Amino acid sequence: MRVTQIVAVGRSIARRNQYRIGGAVGLVALFVLGLEIAGVATGRVLTEGYLDRILRFAMPITLAAVGGLYAEKSGVFNIGLEGFMIFGAVNAVAVAWLLSGDGAVGQVHLWAGIVGATLISVGITVLFAVLLIRYEANQIVAGLAVWFLGLGFGPFTAVAIWGNQSSPPVGRIGRITVPVLSDIPYLGRAVFNTSPLVVATLAVVGLAWYVLYYTRYGYWIQAAGENPTALDTAGVDVNRVRYATVIFSGAMAGLGGAVLAVGVTTSFVGGGLTMVDGRGWIAIVAYLFGNYNPVGAFFAATLFAGADQLQTQLQTVGVEISSNLIGLLPYVAVIVVLSVYGRTRMPSHVGEAYDSES
C-alpha cells in the first residue's frame, strides 16, 4: 500500500471510531488526573516495565479477540472463547511438561506446548463448528457449554497429571533483544527487548486486518455475516466460510490461553475461574469496542491489560492503595466500554443458520 493510501485508511478509521477513540483517550486522561490528585507522579507509574507488562498481558486477550471477531463477522457468535482459552492454557503446560519427561522444561518444550495446545483447540473447535453450523445448535447455549467444559476440564487435567488443580512452574518463553533499538528510552524494553510472542501477536493483528479488509476472502467473510444469500448466489459456499472462521476463532482463543500460561505466566492455575479469569469474555468486549477491527481490538485489549496490571505497578513503585479498589478497575473499564457498545453495528445475520437452497 502507498503512504497516501495508508493515511486515507487511517483517517477513515478515525472518523468511524471517533467516539471509541475519544472514550479511550478520556479514560487515560482520567487515569492521569487521578494520579495527580492522589499526589502520585505520573512518571513513577507510567514506566518501561509497566508498558512491557501491558503488552504481554494484552496478548492473550488480543489473540482471542481477533479469532472471535472473525467468527462473528461471518455470522457465528463464538461465546465460548473463555472455554477455549482454558483448554489452551492447561494443554500448553501439559504438553510441555509431558514432552520434558517430567524433567527440566526447556524453551523447545514450551514452544511445542504452544503448538500442541493450539492443535488440540483446533480439534475441539471442529466439533464445536459442526454442532453450530451442521446441526444448527443454539450458539449461546453451545458457547456456554464450552466454557463449563473448560472450567471442569482444566482442573481435572491438572489433577490427573500433577495431583493438584494447579501445575508446578514450567518456565516462560524467553525474550529476544534487538541490539541498539532495545536501548531506546521507554519503548526499548517493551518493543525491542520482549517476548517473541508479542511480536507474533502484533503480526497476527496486522495480517488479520489486511486479510479482512483487503482480500477477496475477507470480503467473503464479511458477506457471510451481512448478506449470505448474495454470497451463495455468487457461487461461494457460505457454510464453508463460516467453518473456517469458527475454527480459526477456536485456534486463536486456544493460542491465547497457551500464551497466557507459558508466555506471560509460568504455570497453569485451575482454582476458581482458572487463570484465564474472564479474559475470554473481555476479548468479546474488546472486539466489540474495536468495532470488529483487529487493530481496534488490540488497542482495547491494551486498555484492559493496563487496568489489570495497575495494581502490580502501584505496588512496584510503593504506592499504597486498596487492592480491592484497584482490582475493580478492569471491570470498571469493561462497563465503560459496554456503555459505548450501542454504537457498534453487529453483522446483520449473526446467530442465524444458513441453509443453501442448492
How would you characterize this protein structure?
With 358 residues, the chain is mainly α. 71% of the residues lie in helices and 1% in strands. It has helices at residues 3-16, 18-37, 42-45, 48-73, 81-99, 107-134, 139-162, 187-192, 196-214, 216-226, 228-233, 238-264, 279-289, 294-316, 323-327, 329-338; strands spanning 176-177, 193-194. The protein has a two-stranded antiparallel sheet. Helix 4 crosses helix 10 (216-226). It is globular. The mean pLDDT is 87.
Précis, in short:
By secondary structure, the chain is mainly α. The chain has helices at residues 3-16, 18-37, 42-45, 48-73, 81-99, 107-134, 139-162, 187-192, 196-214, 216-226, 228-233, 238-264, 279-289, 294-316, 323-327, 329-338, and strands at residues 176-177, 193-194.
Helix content: over 70%
Give the structural class. mainly alpha
Broad shape: globular
Nearest-integer average pLDDT:
87
Cross-sheet strand order for the largest sheet? 1-2
Q: Which band does the percent of strand residues land in? A: under 5%
List the helices and strands and how they pair.
Elements: H1 3-16, H2 18-37, H3 42-45, H4 48-73, H5 81-99, H6 107-134, H7 139-162, E1 176-177, H8 187-192, E2 193-194, H9 196-214, H10 216-226, H11 228-233, H12 238-264, H13 279-289, H14 294-316, H15 323-327, H16 329-338
Antiparallel strand pairs: 1-2
Helix pairs in contact: 4-9, 4-10, 4-12, 4-13, 4-14, 5-6, 5-7, 5-12, 5-13, 6-12, 9-10, 13-14, 14-16
